[in-house]
């Protein structure tokens, strides 16, 4: 489990083809690798991945074809948001994030408004029912609060700190983003519709 509070931005520096997927080599940037072990989970742009190799300054993860087919941002050398899996004693600054991406949204706009930015995203239609005004959503691994919801479109206010410490600053109209809807909303739906 994760909280959606990005610990650092790293960079995918190399992609090695596997029979069914890719092995990514990630430079960890400011992410402390001191307590990371083989087999640990690190969220990369909101995708929970398992560390299969580790150095003092980075790590490698294997990404299956299934994961590549339902996410964006893991198939090129680019900046990624990083978060280590939470421990039971950690602060809980965001919301419950599993690192299992529900779908890919499309950025409609990212406009500066005063000192902040408004990010507007179009979600896949089947995810829209889980997105609520003032609810939680994860975008590329970042725990955010929705301000407005209009059908499949929703807006988020990004404060300067979020723009500075995450890769969201690189988004533009048409960019794909990994979305994970609120875990509790999914369970509530399942309880209401058990069939």
CATH first level of the largest domain: which class?
Mainly Beta
Number of helices: 3
Poorly predicted regions are: none
User: What does the largest sheet look like?
Assistant: 6 strands, antiparallel, barrel
CATH topology type of the largest domain: Elongation Factor Tu (Ef-tu), domain 3
Helix content: 10-25%
The beta-strand count equals 12
Basic shape: globular
Report Rg.
Answer: 16 Å
Amino- and carboxy-terminal Cα gap:
27 Å
Kindly name the structural category.
mainly beta
Q: Would you write up a description of this structure?
A:
The protein has 195 residues and is mainly beta. The chain has two domains: 8-84, Elongation Factor Tu (Ef-tu), domain 3, CATH 2.40.30; 103-192, Elongation Factor Tu (Ef-tu), domain 3 (Beta Barrel). It contains three helices and twelve strands, in the order E-E-E-E-E-H-E-E-E-E-E-E-H-E-H. The protein has a six-stranded antiparallel barrel. It has a six-stranded antiparallel beta barrel with strand order 7-8-11-10-9-12. The radius of gyration is 16 Å and the shape is globular.
């Amino acid at each position: 489990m994760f909280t959606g509070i990005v610990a650092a931005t790293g960079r995918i520096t190399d992609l090695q083809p596997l029979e069914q997927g890719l092995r990514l080599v990630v430079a960890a940037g400011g992410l402390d690798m001191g307590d990371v072990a083989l087999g640990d989970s690190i969220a990369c742009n909101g995708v929970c991945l398992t560390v299969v190799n580790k150095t003092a300054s980075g790590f490698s993860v294997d990404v299956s074809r299934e994961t590549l087919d339902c996410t964006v941002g893991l198939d090129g050398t680019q900046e990624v948001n990083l978060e280590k899996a939470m421990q039971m004693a950690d602060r809980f600054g965001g919301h419950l994030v599993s690192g299992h991406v529900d779908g890919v949204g499309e950025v409609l706009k990212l406009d500066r408004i005063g000192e902040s930015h408004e990010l507007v995203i179009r979600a896949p239609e089947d995810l829209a029912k889980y997105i609520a005004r003032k609810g939680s959503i994860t975008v590329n691994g970042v725990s955010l609060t929705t301000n407005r919801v209009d059908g499949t479109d929703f807006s988020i206010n990004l404060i300067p700190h979020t723009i500075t410490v995450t890769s969201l600053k690189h988004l533009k109209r048409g960019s794909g983003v990994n979305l994970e809807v609120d875990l509790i909303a999914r369970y509530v739906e399942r309880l209401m519709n058990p069939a």
